[in-house]
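Sample pair:
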Amino acid sequence: MTEERTVEPLLEPREGIPPVVADAAGLAEVVARFAAGSGPVAVDAERASGYRYGNRAYLVQLRRAGAGTALIDPIGCPDLSSLDEALAEAEIVLHAASQDLPCLMEIGFKPRQMFDTELAGLLGYERVGLGTMVETVLGLRLEKGHSAADWSTRPLPLDWLRYAALDVEVLVELRDALYQELADAGKLEWAREEFEAVLNTPPPAPRPDPWRRTSGIHKVRNVRALAIVRELWNMRDRIAREADLAPGRVLPDAAIVTAALEGPRTKKALTEISAFTGRSARRHINDWLAAVARARELPDSQLPQPSTPGDGPPPPNRWADRDPAAAKRLAAARAVVAALADEHHMPAENLLQPDAVRRLTWEPPEEITDETVTARLRKLGAREWQLALAAHPIAKALARLETQGES
């Protein structure tokens, strides 16, 4: 790990704040400049989560040796495929790549090679946020005051642009330091496997019944009230998509749950619910009332069930009651992973994905061997380095339990 050092604030980009590129001519100049640069390319993206519908990028920042820093407005430059092509052979440095890759790919930018500085967890860093890592490893302090800003704002304020430029100012330097630490610790190949896995992870499939994730839905106990949640959620989603607003800005989850519990039948009753008194909620009061009425009029055959079966095991706190043997397998596998993680100085979730451990131990192979456990974990997404460390000791622990159960 890097020794403690004096922390210095990082206040201004070295070459100043670059102008925001928002047209084809400016983008062509950036493409040429970055193609002529050298070494890894630092990339970051700013979204407007909590303000706009979806997670599109509203600003893209890049920095490369010999090219300086560029700030690109994806509203004016919605297609970055020319930049993607120019940097096809370059290593792209990101922090928390799984968050930025989807919005970058939407605008035509998909790295072929990547270094994710957030994966410093492999080195045992407990806090891996960008600001913390820059401070811990490089001795510099980043200002993080605008991370939750509405980046769809136009024009973007100067202090926001300064913050955005600084986010990529030392990202390559951070990459270089972590690269050396990974190499010294014998973990560089592990990291490369992780980077490759992140790059090749397909977009998540749409969730079935996304309305079931409404915050506070656990308070709703009957299926008629659940139907009200579903109708209000779907109406809100349609309005939010059309207005390009975050759904919570159209109507908060608390309003949906309260309406489901109270079942208001009139506009007056609906507006007496405090969460429906906001300007955006009042604007669509007739839509909300119609949604509640639709739910109330549904035949019983069309009402939602209290819950839908998932594709994985139940929550671990229910295992002891539902399958005591599985609970013992989970405890044994977790103990193995925890011990290995401690030995290799990293969090247990970095050594082996918790979901893979749960699925393996809930439905183990019929015959427990190194080969069957390795095959199952590989199918569940474990990397080769994880299999090399964990498959044998987990198989051994599970086989021991099996033997004890037979004796």
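The chain has a mean pLDDT of 94.
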